[in-house]
Amino acid sequence: MGKLVRQVCLLTCITALTGCASSDFSLGVKPWQKGTLSKDSMQIKHSELQAEFDSHIYFAREASSGGGIGGGGCGCN
Amino acid sequence: MLAVDIQADSLSEATNSASDSAVNIAPVQLNDKSNVAADKSVGSKADENSNWRVKTAVLSYSEEGRIQVNQALLKLTRESDSGSLQFKLDTDTVTGPSMTGALPSSEAQTYSNPSGSLETVTAAGELPEWVIESHRRSSVSVSKEDILNSDYSINYGARYSYEHSYKSKSITAGISRNFDRKNTQLSFSTLFEDAEVLPIGGVVKPGEETIIRADYADEAEFKTAWNNLRTGEAEKKRAYELVTGITQVINRDAIVQLNYSYGQVNGYQNDALKLVSIIDANGNPEANVYENRPDHRERQSVYVHGKYSLGTSQVLDLSYRYYWDDWSINSHTVAAGWQFELGSNWKLEPQVRWYKQSSADFFQQSIFADGAVAVIPDYMSADYRLAATNNYTLGVNLDYKFDSGKALSMRLALYEINPEDDSSSKRGRLNDIDLTPTIRSTVFMMSYDF
After folding, report:
1. With an 8 Å Cβ cutoff, are B94 and A30 in contact?
2. Of A30, A49, A34, which Cα lies nearest the Cα of B32?
């Protein structure tokens, strides 16, 4: 199950990132097309403080961490 | 004000705990804004537009009938065209009862507290727990990001975290490279942590039975036996993690990040306060032994995070992580947020999160004596955090941005943990008892950007 999920996940991402899903689809934008992408709410690390606190909580209560979410802090009792 | 993304949070995420060994590091994350910053550094005088930002935040995490955590944080960030510098201080205090992992009995049970200074009594039918009166942790970190040119940036930092039972030093470093007019970024980050675990009452011998004063003639005999159950005051733990990632602009409305992380934790990973009960055929505890976990753990995860802009005032945020380790734990985490801009100052974001975890292969809630001397396995833990579980979070964020640029954020979330019992550990009366009841908690956070 785990292996299958990993393979599907990787395949999906590679497909999306390389644009293989459609022959007339190209990734990326011109510099002058980045208006929306430059908004705070479109940043990958938007609300980093909230993510930090959340990861603190989840890290102390769940057995998983890493990969961009999770991690951080104690309060581990 | 430039909003250059900085890497300090990879440090904050790199902390570890005596009871739940793990490290985490976020890879270098270049997004459109840092691209903008990098562009400006070319041909311009470095640090020309530097300034400091101050951020403060408080958090309250409260479990129904159990742990309460209060945390405060101060963050100072100096940003410029050539990078950023960040200092961070935070502290938290934990109070309240915490389950020991021992099982309820049909009679009252007496336990020595972790330091051995006194005994506590658990009523018949109740789950044994320690009451933490006040446990404080503090940490300080510094980190820096240097934008070397329009293609490369590096980041590095250090962190120190202190609490009575855990001291941790960690360093992190990363590099990122832009491609295709900064539509693509590859990143690589590393983290190393060196920690000292100092359990309250000392490092206990795994698999040994707990004792109480009543079994000894006097205090001196008890103390001798108590000390014989311990090997010292501290143990070492070292961890490292490598994260590599790609961030890709899909189109003018979407951006995706994919990370892979690999890490190892080596050294002491037991929770000296956690117990496993030896039970009889009726399910009553005859004794309790200290848990034992492997001293090596290898962890991996794949993480995908996407942002999609819907029109001019809504953003959809989706993420998924698959995690697996050599303790046979694997997990799926799905999180989603939908942000609405309400006018020019307000933002509202409802969020949901689902987390499903399998149990560690050495998770067991009892050792069955079966009328003979109990066979203590090499590794065993009844810590509910190593049990199979389905957890849910429902939350909402509310942000207000003042015309001056200052910002106030609030977050309220309800978090539910639903651990599953290890059915093979149950005998007799235990079959009718939920040994890992649902834990419901409320999270409130407030932050202010000066």
Report:
1. no
2. A34
